[in-house]
Amino acid sequence: MPKSETKDASPCKVLLVEDHPMFRDHLGQLINRDLGMSVCGEADNIRDAMRLIHETKPDIAIVDITLRGSSGLELLKDIKAQGLSVNVLVLSMHDEELYAERALRAGAKGYITKNEASTEVIKAIRCVMNGEVYASRQMTTKLLERMTQKRSSPELAGMETLADRELEVFQMLGRGRSTREIAQSLSLGESTVETYRARIKEKLQLRSAAELYLRAGQWVREHGA
After folding, report:
1. At what angle do helices 179-186 and 190-204 cross, to 10 degrees?
2. d(CA 10, CA 47)
3. Of 18, 28, 121, 127, whose CB count within 10 A is highest?
């Protein structure tokens, strides 16, 4: 029997990892009011999230992709590398076609976008809480199409060649961040960021830094990344 349905059991503990305080408050109210679970901690960055996971031992963590500093994908990898027993649902504004598979590969049990209705978010939380994998019907169809070797759109196919860290750098470039700002945000050396930029240009077949910034800015505007 799932813990949330066990008689006399303490409420399931939920950790919220989200960089927008207002959205954290809304989500916390939803969890306490409609799910009967308890928010055991909140964080907006990986370091605080890992500390809270060790201290509070949550049953489930709801994680955004965009955090202060490194992304939620890096948090998923850290959780997996340390062998921590916590189910993770990614709740993000980012395009599920690009991020859902990455999140699942990194160790998440589910992926849902912030565009979904509260009832669907509740369904996803319950699904992951019970140890099952959650993906939207549309995403499940796309994953199955990929397994049967149907190709993605040319634009997305190019983006899919980027590694997680390269995608993170690409998005920061699209938000107008400089190499120094990206390096500081991700705790990397500037030369490392330059290497990522060079790889991105090569993979996306871009000829110049100006073309890279133009493409990255366009991507962020179109996808809300």
Report:
1. 110
2. 27
3. 18
Does the global pTM surpass 0.90? no
CB atoms within 10 A of CB 85: 9
Confirm if 110 and 124 have CB atoms less than 8 A apart.
yes
Distance between CA atoms of residues 176 and 182, nearest Å: 10
Read off the DSSP letter of residue 134: B
Q: CA 26: distance to chain centroid?
A: 18
Mention every residue, 6+ apart, whose C-beta is less than 8 A from residue 22. Answer: none
Cα 108 to chain centroid, rounded: 9
Neighbours of 116 (CB within 10 A): 15
Neighbours of 54 (CB within 10 A): 10
Place of tokens 């950790």: 15
Say how many residues make up the chain. 225
- pLDDT truncated to tens, each residue of the chain (225 aa)? 444 444 456 789 999 999 999 999 999 998 988 888 999 999 999 999 999 999 999 999 999 998 998 899 999 999 999 999 999 999 998 878 888 989 999 999 999 999 899 999 999 999 999 989 999 888 888 777 776 665 555 556 678 889 999 999 999 999 999 999 999 999 899 999 999 999 999 999 999 999 999 999 998 888 766
CA distance 223 to 225: 5
Question: What is the distance in angstroms between the CA of the first residue and the CA of the last residue of the chain?
Answer: 38
Residue type, 195: T
- Give the E-state strand segments of 54-168 in sequence order: 60-63, 87-92, 110-113
